[in-house]
Amino acid sequence: MFANSAFVSAPERLVVRGGSRHLLRFKVRYGVYQNPTAGLVLIDTGYGSRVTEGPDRSLPLRLYARLLRPKLVEEHQPARVLDRLGASTADVAAIVLTHFHADHVAALRLFPKAKIYARAAVLARIRARSRFANLRHGIFDELLPQDLTSRIVDIDQLPVRPAPHELGEGADLFGDGETLAVDLPGHAEGHFGICFAGLPVPLLYAVDAQWCAAALAPGKAPGLPASLIASDRRALAASTRRVAAFVENGGDVLLCHDPSESPYDLPGAPE
Ligand SMILES: [Zn+2]
User: Fold this and answer.
1) Separation of 121 CA from ligand 1 center, angstroms?
2) Which domain holds residue 180?
3) Cα diameter, the chain
4) At 60, is the secondary structure helix, strand, or coil?
5) pLDDT tens digit sequence for 141-161
6) Which residues surround ligand 1, an ion (CB under 5 A)?
7) Residue 74: enclosing H or E segment and its boundaries?
């Protein structure tokens, strides 16, 4: 189930080649689900108030928030969503971090005890770089708790299993073969998606492989300036094709920012 932490408005043509000037309201999803082995799991955390109004924000983070102007959806902030599910932030046992961009890590501090499933090598590179060098990668280190490294479960050390519909291999996050971390490089360092392999129709949460489902069609991926933001344009194109092939083979796909309603969305977010 996916909650929508915020809306961000941008013209369609920025994210779909040949798109219109119309403003679309993009979502900023994060996943919440109960895994029989791992317990209550989040997939990323979405945007939170640390990005939009944290009083101790750095100047670059203030500028970033001003530029993108994310509008937080209060009812879908993690504490509220967990409350609706009869749980609290303290019940979250694990958070899967698909990458370290601000809209995926902003609420990490709400979960000081959760295990973090992520790429240890990417976090090590972030920790070794200067704040300025991280900004060039779209990463605000002030959003990452100090003890993050010690809480990491390195997905690169986990056993891999084949994902359905010829998606390739994925790291088996919880040892039950049902939640596979599948590499989708290009958008950000170490970016990966999550394949829910045990569903009747397997779902690939492809996170930021594209912003909009329409951009998965051949020739529809956006050009400049969106492609400039990507960490590796060629890898991004290959990941886009991989996601599109999964859909062609009968899988379902969900993107973090796609503006349309999805059957995987938690109901009740204001339009
Ligand atoms: Zn991202």
Assistant:
1) 17
2) 2-255
3) 48
4) helix
5) 999 999 999 999 999 999 999
6) 101, 208
7) none
Distance separating alpha carbons of residues 141 and 130, to the nearest angstrom: 9
Distance 9 CA to ligand 1 centre (A): 16
Domain count for the chain: 1
Q: Report d(CA 205, CA 194) in Å as an integer.
A: 5
CA distance 126 to 139: 8
* Ligand 1 centroid – CA 210 distance (Å): 9
Give the separation between CA 38 and CA 160, rounded to whole angstroms.
17
Cα(260) to ligand 1 centroid in Å equals 18
Q: Taking a C-beta distance cutoff of 8 angstroms, is the pair 214, 16 a contact?
A: yes
Report the number of secondary-structure helices (H) and strands (E) in the chain. 8, 13
Residue 239 lies in a domain: yes
228 confidence band (pLDDT: 50, 70, 90) = low
**Domain-located, residue 271:** no
In a domain, 67, yes or no: yes
* pLDDT tens digits, 69-103: 999 999 999 999 999 999 999 999 999 999 999 99
Q: How far is the CA of 89 from the centre of ligand 1 (A)?
A: 23
Q: Are 50 and 57 in contact (CB under 8 A)?
A: yes
The 3-state secondary structure of 210-222, one letter per residue:
CCCHHHHCCCCCC
CATH, residue 211: 3.60.15.10
State the pTM of this model. 0.94
User: What's the distance, CA 13 to chain centroid?
Assistant: 22
SS3 141: helix
Q: Is 267 a member of any domain?
A: no
Cα 251 from Cα 260, distance rounded (Å) = 18
Ligand 1: distance of its center to the CA of 139 in Å? Answer: 9
